Amino acid sequence: MKLITTYGLVQMPPPCRRCSGLLMSKLRASSSENASDYDMNALFQILPRDLHDNLLNKSRHARLLEVIMDLGRLPEACYLGESSRQYLRDTEVSMKELEYAQNAVGEFGEDNRAGIEGTLHRISAIRNREGKVVGLTCRVGRAIRGHIDMVQDLLQYGKSILFVGRPGVGKTTVMREIARVLSEELQKRVVIVDTSNEIGGGGDVSHPAIGGARRLHVSEPLMQHRVMIEAVENHMPEVIIVDEIGTEADVNACRSIAERGVMLVGTAHGERLKNIVENPTLCDLIGGVETVILGDQEARTRKCRKTILERKAPPTFPFCVEMRKRHYWVTHRVYCSTFDLFLCLWC
């Protein structure tokens, strides 16, 4: 089945040529050229000395995505634009090295994530059954100005936007830049619900990459929906930014916030818009789906089966951006005609 993307009719100023029709653009500048606002050395300091020196001396460390250290295995590095990971040395990672990195990072949260204070880097732990750390994924965090140029026009509408993409495609980086643009350039009151301190960085002081946006910390990942509602009730935001919407409670909180007239910018895991439609938990973000039984005459008129799927409600997120690759995005206006056409083809 092919998903046909259309744009519903809405009463708003016409978007610029980059946003009219199917948006499939490429950024003109690579991330390695623009990523100047992050501290690589802070990440290297938690690694064993030989890995630190090895990575620092490589000319392509500006394209480094993550370093993986698993107990009893060779340490690996993953680079932007390269499908295969590369070994950093020919000796295996020891428990002593993992303990050193863990002590340098500090305490991990309940989601087994931690940050390095003053930076955007994220450290994720793998634990054994006894709770001991036996592996670390050290992901590089970057602030890239200009990264949202191809969808910046959408921000001026004041409508909620959902970014959909697989893990590692750059959704969190986009959230940072959107927070900066909305708070500094468009002078909006922006509040970030930062569940894992990924958007605003580690520590109590937010990273400059988010501009003038304020940040609410979340003590437990399962409490994200409550903090979202708290942000609306206590801090009078014009925009709320939330990363990784994934539970039914998160979805309900998003709908509640949208109904109060607050713009939402969020992310969810998926490859395409159709993945959100097919997800029973997340489909309410774009209107929801219900089964309807048609009468015989109506079914003949529509030339379809008697049991069909229909949209339940208006979408929480009028815009959906598919991040298919880091520099290859497709945007949809998720208004009635778009969603209904997809359900018609699906049936």
Automatic annotation (TrEMBL):
SMART domains: AAA (SM00382). This is AAA+ ATPase domain-containing protein. It comes from the Eukaryota. Residues 157-313 form the AAA+ ATPase domain. Coiled coil: none annotated. InterPro entries: AAA+_ATPase, P-loop_NTPase, Spore_III_AA_AAA+_ATPase. Pfam families: Spore_III_AA (PF19568). Keywords: ATP-binding, Nucleotide-binding. GO terms for molecular function: ATP binding.
